[in-house]
Every structure is written in structure tokens, then in C-alpha cells.
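Changelog note: in this version the structure field was regenerated for every chain. One regenerated record is shown below for reference.
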Amino acid sequence: MQPPFFNALSDSKRILIAGMGGGFDVFCGLPLYFALREEGREVTLANLSFISFGPLTPHPLAPALVEVTPDFHVQHGEYFPEYYLARWLATQGEAGRVFAFKKQGVKPVLTAYRALQKQLRLDTIILVDGGTDALMRGDEADLGTPHEDAVSLAAVNELSGIKRYIVSLGFGIDAFHGVAHWNVLEATAELARAGAYLGSFSLTPDMQPVQLYQDACEAVFEQMPRHISIVNASILSALHGHYGDHHLTERTRGSELWINPLMSQYWCYDLPAVAERLQYREALLNTLSMSDVDRVIRGHRAEIVPRERRTLPI
């Protein structure tokens, strides 16, 4: 048997895998990228980017969309995960490109997604969350880092004529940002009742797509040694059987981590159902900037009484 997620993808031919929270989220989609490529699918990578693109940035496709390729001029060590990933992909015989969405509000990001949907003739979009805070609906005791995830979720939910899914990788990581994983499992249960939870499956080190994911992470970490991804470092630690307060990067020294086997497990969901749970989604639709997004989230939090924080009884 296989998770319903793969049955849902059975007739998908042109797929976009996009990091929804920015930073290194797109790397969390690499095992899925390589697995689907092995099946002969046409798969493209994208990411909500933390880079400030200027008006003279090459390869603009829309006001908030840039095609990042190895011919960009980047100083060694500069924070630019999309560039270093594109360069690594080219060394593997893959298309050396990663599309980058500028970190803006929902309206410009939606316009960019529509442009990419048309250009690539996409039939499926899979948003990838490094962690699990994309499942927070808005009234939890702590939302983690919701801004970028909410923008991507609200934008892709507005697309028509395309299948849309969310996968998360890194269960437990968002405890670092205050998320109660009681709420993650609560959300999964609610989505299961709605028929929108599409199963989960584990990654293991013997899988070739996982090995390529690790190679990509290690290559990019070497190029950006001051910016090693805490999320992906934690997932790699879990993949290799580490548990508890294990630190792969000095960036986490001084904090207590909970590396655990569930970190290397994909959790899969139908995107419109996740978007329907987001209590401030409609208020996000007219946002133009991240400042607008911040005002919406702060306004929502000011109007509600957050639910009591609960912890897993295990």
C-alpha cells in the first residue's frame, strides 16, 4: 500500500514543488523532487525567497518572480540558497534553475504564481513546509513563524484549474519557535475528518532521492557556512538515527533540541482544506507587502483569545 498522496498525484505530469516559508524550505522538497523525476514527471523547483532582488536582476518573469540560474553574480558565502541549489542541480545534470518568489504580500505573489502556472503549463503545485507551523489556524497559543507560510498558502489557494497540496517535513522542529505539536496533530486529525489528510511516509538513508537531498544540503552548507539551515540540519540528524539534544550545527548551540524519528517523515495534505482553516486568510488577500501581512496577523491576534497551550501527553 502507498499513501493516498501518491494516488492523488497519479495523473500529474507537470509539477511545481515550492518552498512555502522561504529560506531553505525548498530543500525539504528535494527527496520528493528526485522521486517524481525518477517516475518521468516534469518537476520544477521554486521558493519564497528572502533575497532582495533589484530592478536589474536577470531573468525576471513577473514583478515578484525571478528565475535563478548559475549565471547570477553572487559573492562567496552570500545568503542565497536558491542560487547555490541551482548551481548544484546543474552539476547533477538537472535543470540548473530555481524560481524565486519575492517576499511580498499575497497579491503580488499570486500574480507571480499565475505567471509561472501559465509559463510551465502546470497541472499540480506542492507547497513544502520545513517544519509544521503552516498548519496553525490562527488561534493557537503560539503560531511559530506564520507570515511567509500564510502568504504562500493564501496565494496558491486562489489558483484555479490546478491540483494543490501541502507536504511538511520536520515534525518537532517548530518547538524551537514555540509551536505546540499538540496543535499539529490536532490539525491533522481535523483534516483527516474532512478527507484532506493524504497520509505520511518516512524517508530513510538508503533511498537514492534522500541521498541526493543530503548531497545537496551538504554542498550548499559548505558554500554558505554561516547560514547552515537549522531545519535541514535537524532532518539530516534524524535521518541518521540521532535522538534528543543533538546539534549538527553550531547555530543551535545553547538551545535544547528534540531530534526525533518523526522529523524525517513527510506529512501530506490537500491544500484548499488547510487554507480553509486559516482564520485570517481572507484578510490576507489584498496585502501587498510583508508589513501588510504582519498587520493582518497582529490584528487577528488582538481580536481573539488564544487557546490554552497543551502539550503531548507522552
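Spot check on this record: The CA atoms of residues 16 and 205 lie 24 Å apart. DSSP finds eleven helices and nine strands in the chain.
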